[in-house]
């Protein structure tokens, strides 16, 4: 009797010291049924896992008590079971590094067995590797667990593994943008949904509804059908969070936060704020990563809804989140925003009369545009007139040349011809032929006028010829005006042989493959 009392006291005392809250009485009653330290350790671990709303700090302190209750000489199986329970407790409280450390120790014992514990650890390995981005390892362990569940006809575990595989492929899609992974994600999630929606616990149902809602948001590309399904699954998740008494508060907070983010993304920051506030209410006294994630959603909603005072109060109240929120906040100084809201800026004269200003500017630019176009048209007309004048001069000159040539021929055929008169005629003809119509100064003016009227033609010349000289360029421009070699000679004040030499040189400068370019240029408009 004394031995049992002493044993009970040794077991109960550390638990009472470490568990000073509403759970005291319940744990004390359960420990009264223990027969030894090993049983007590199991009872404490079971108590932690069943009471998921225990604070992280208290859960870990009780876990240390459970570890101390196991004797050093306990067999390997007892320690393997302890490490598995410890892994589950750390996993629930999102201490992933400690969770996987304990799962590995437990797996060393169960790996070569057919125990359900082996399957559970492999599932957890898959979950953790998914969270940490080690997708190939996650896939390996999740399919090991899934195949074992199928072989043993464990429909519950098979459905849970299918849900985990669906989430794994969704995470892979988010990182790699692989549409095949997204389709696989939806297929496995729907497989899991058939069993979990009918037989699963409330927590599994809620998490799977949230997961499917997120997956559908990417598979339907904003279609009305996709939006409807997206909303449907979120509503089911929120209903479970509202009504279930078994879902932990932290998990409820997760569902509300995901729903708030969905509402924010579809342009309803007002409803996002309401749901984010509900989510934060669940975790405001907890120490968890989910608390920061919800705080971000809530703070973002306050800013979008221009509730700057509320955002500032939230910022000040939860000082432990300030560093993270400072990195996240949309604006650099919340007090500046509050000041701007209380002292709205007055519109300037331009902002008040922007329509009139716009009309005046449009009218001004229209006038400038019309003026520029008219000026361009006038310059084009002047250039064309200059070319026409040159053509007229050439025509007149040709008439004069023909007249002098005819008169000289008649004088040569007349035996009584006055040699003095014939010499004067020949001198006049020579003077005409040697006097150019285009001097160097006149050529610059002619060149500008020609290029203004025949812009395409002049731009094509460098494409078809290499190293064209100014003399050859004159030849090409005058050919374009329809002048023959004789007329070109008259305009330039050179011999017809010199003109033919220009054509010969251009023939050698034609770009390879453009041998017929002369006829193309001469016949182009």
UniProtKB/TrEMBL annotation:
<keyword id="KW-0472">Membrane</keyword>
<dbReference type="GO" id="GO:0003677">
    <property type="term" value="F:DNA binding"/>
</dbReference>
<feature type="signal peptide">
    <location>
        <begin position="1"/>
        <end position="19"/>
    </location>
</feature>
<dbReference type="InterPro" id="IPR011990">
    <property type="entry name" value="TPR-like_helical_dom_sf"/>
</dbReference>
<feature type="coiled-coil region">
    <location>
        <begin position="373"/>
        <end position="414"/>
    </location>
</feature>
<keyword id="KW-0732">Signal</keyword>
<feature type="transmembrane region" description="Helical">
    <location>
        <begin position="353"/>
        <end position="372"/>
    </location>
</feature>
<dbReference type="GO" id="GO:0006355">
    <property type="term" value="P:regulation of DNA-templated transcription"/>
</dbReference>
<protein>
    <recommendedName>
        <fullName>Regulatory protein, luxR family</fullName>
    </recommendedName>
</protein>
<keyword id="KW-0812">Transmembrane</keyword>
<keyword id="KW-0175">Coiled coil</keyword>
<keyword id="KW-1133">Transmembrane helix</keyword>
<dbReference type="InterPro" id="IPR016032">
    <property type="entry name" value="Sig_transdc_resp-reg_C-effctor"/>
</dbReference>
């Amino acid at each position: 009797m004394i031995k049992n009392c002493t044993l009970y006291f040794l077991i109960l005392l550390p638990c009472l010291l470490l568990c000073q809250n509403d759970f005291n009485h319940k744990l004390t009653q359960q420990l009264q049924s223990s027969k030894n330290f090993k049983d007590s350790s199991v009872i404490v671990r079971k108590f932690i896992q069943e009471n998921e709303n225990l604070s992280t700090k208290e859960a870990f302190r009780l876990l240390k008590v459970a570890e101390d209750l196991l004797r050093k000489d306990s067999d390997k199986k007892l320690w393997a079971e302890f490490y598995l329970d410890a892994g589950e407790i750390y996993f629930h409280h999102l201490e992933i590094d400690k969770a996987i450390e304990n799962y590995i120790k437990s797996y060393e014992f169960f790996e070569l067995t057919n125990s359900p514990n082996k399957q559970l650890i492999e599932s957890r390995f898959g979950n953790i590797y998914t969270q940490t981005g080690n997708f190939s390892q996650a896939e390996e362990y999740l399919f090991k667990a899934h195949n074992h569940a199928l072989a043993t006809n464990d429909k519950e575990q098979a459905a849970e593994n299918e849900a985990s595989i669906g989430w794994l492929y969704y995470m892979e899609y988010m990182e790699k943008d692989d549409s095949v992974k997204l389709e696989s994600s939806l297929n496995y999630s729907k497989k899991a949904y058939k069993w979990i929606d009918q037989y699963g616990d409330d927590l599994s149902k809620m998490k799977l509804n949230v997961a499917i809602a997120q997956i559908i948001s990417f598979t339907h590309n904003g279609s009305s059908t996709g939006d409807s399904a997206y909303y449907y699954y979120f509503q089911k998740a929120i209903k479970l969070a509202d009504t279930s008494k078994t879902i932990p508060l932290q998990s409820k907070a997760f569902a509300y936060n995901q729903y708030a983010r969905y509402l924010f993304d579809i342009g309803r920051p007002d409803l996002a704020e309401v749901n984010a506030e509900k989510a934060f209410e669940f975790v405001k006294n907890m120490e968890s990563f989910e608390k920061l994630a919800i705080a971000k959603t809530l703070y973002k909603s306050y800013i979008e809804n221009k509730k700057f005072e509320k955002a500032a109060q939230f910022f000040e109240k939860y000082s432990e989140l300030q560093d993270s929120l400072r990195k996240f906040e949309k604006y650099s100084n919340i007090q500046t925003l509050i000041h701007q809201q209380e002292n709205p800026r007055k519109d300037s004269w331009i902002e008040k009369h922007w329509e009139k200003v716009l009309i005046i500017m449009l009218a001004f630019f229209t006038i400038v545009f019309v003026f520029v176009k008219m000026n361009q048209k006038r310059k084009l007309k002047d250039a064309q007139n200059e070319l026409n004048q040159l053509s007229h001069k050439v025509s007149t000159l040709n008439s004069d040349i023909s007249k002098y040539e005819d008169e000289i021929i008649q004088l040569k055929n007349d035996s009584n011809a006055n040699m003095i008169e014939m010499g004067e005629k020949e001198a006049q003809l020579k003077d005409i032929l040697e006097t150019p119509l285009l001097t160097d100064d006149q050529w610059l003016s002619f060149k500008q006028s020609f290029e203004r009227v025949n812009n395409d033609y002049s731009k094509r010349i460098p494409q078809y010829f290499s190293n064209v000289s100014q003399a050859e360029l004159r030849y090409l421009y005058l050919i374009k005006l329809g002048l023959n070699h004789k007329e070109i000679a008259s305009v330039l004040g050179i011999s017809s042989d010199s003109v033919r030499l220009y054509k010969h040189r251009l023939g050698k400068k034609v770009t390879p493959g453009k041998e017929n370019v002369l006829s193309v240029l001469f016949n182009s408009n």
